[in-house]
Amino acid sequence: PSSVSAAFQEYLQHLGLQDFPCGLGSWVRVWGGTAMGYGTGLPLLLLSPCLQNKSCLNACRSPQAEPAGLEEAVPPGEETPEALLELLRDQHSPWALPPDCSPQDRLLREVAVLAPELLRGSRVFQVVKSLRILDKGVEEVDEGLLRFQQLEELILSANHISRVTSAHLPRTLKVLELCCNAVRDLQDLCARPLPELQHLGLGYNQLCGPPQEKHLTVDFWPNLVSLDLSFNSLTDLLGLVSQLSTLQNLRVLVLQGNPLALIPTYRGFLVDSLPKLSILDDIHIWPDERQQFHGLARQPELIRSEARVVVSIGEMKGLPDPKAFQQLKVGSEGPVITYSYCVTYEF
After folding, report:
1. d(Cα 278, Cα 266) in Å, to the nearest integer?
2. Peptide bond before 210: cis, by omega within 30 degrees of 0?
3. What is the C-alpha separation between 154 and 133, in angstroms, rounded?
4. Which residues form the signal peptide (predicted)?
5. pTM to 2 decimals?
6. Mean pLDDT per 10-residue interval, the chain, length 347 residues
7. Domain holding 231: CATH number?
8. Using an 8 Å Cβ cutoff, are 48 and 30 in contact?
9. Count of domains in the chain?
């Protein structure tokens, strides 16, 4: 799928929300010519299709609609929601979700048992609060996302997204993760700022400064607590810090993997420039470290646009053994062989 909406529809089909034991009604599964009625444990002989919905309980099955003593209210041969939920939750059940599935997967499957009417048609968009679409080849963040009126978390990592239009994002978003995509520019993302956003993940993209740094201020992200800009191509540390200092709620910042992180005074300058920061590059900032770098923010002249890299060569293969030349006696007329090597490092 090329769009988020198309990927979501494919995701719903994969969950099988209309298949046993989800969907409306009580279910009977036929094995060969014999069927087992789940919830009753009694074998039944049927001549029906392989999977048959035979329930008359196709009204509401929400927890609010369940009468007291549901076990007695269910006619013989029909399964209770509790019995169907057990099939979803038991790790040995063939209908159980894998252990690494998201909480949203489990929620939707269980809602499909308890209140399947909530997942019919467009109602499903009112249920989803967290949407994770990872590595599905998504290229477009389309306006279909606006149907998710309760969406708080949107994870679109490891796709092929190069442009994100904020007008297509629900205003309720608190977490937006776009790690491992191809985002180059933040202008469209900031055209209509998301007032409730608390985490913005843009690691492993193609952001280049300084044009992008002007979009990282409180004017666009008033409630931002966590920001991941790791492994991009940001180079202007002074310019970036001047913008980030306006984010009064910022507590977690990740900048490792950018060229600016090679500057010798990089960490100390950030620690002193952003006094409210708690975690930098996944390392907690303790009071003694903050005291150690106190005053560094007032010395921008120490920030040089250069870096020093020390390369240690552990092993080189294919070179002549120098021991062979040590066997020649001093003053001997043996041939003198000179070898020259050129090693090039590209950054």
Report:
1. 16
2. yes
3. 8
4. none
5. 0.72
6. 90 84 59 36 27 37 43 59 86 85 84 82 86 94 95 96 96 98 96 96 93 92 97 94 96 96 93 97 97 92 71 79 64 70 75
7. 3.80.10.10
8. yes
9. 1
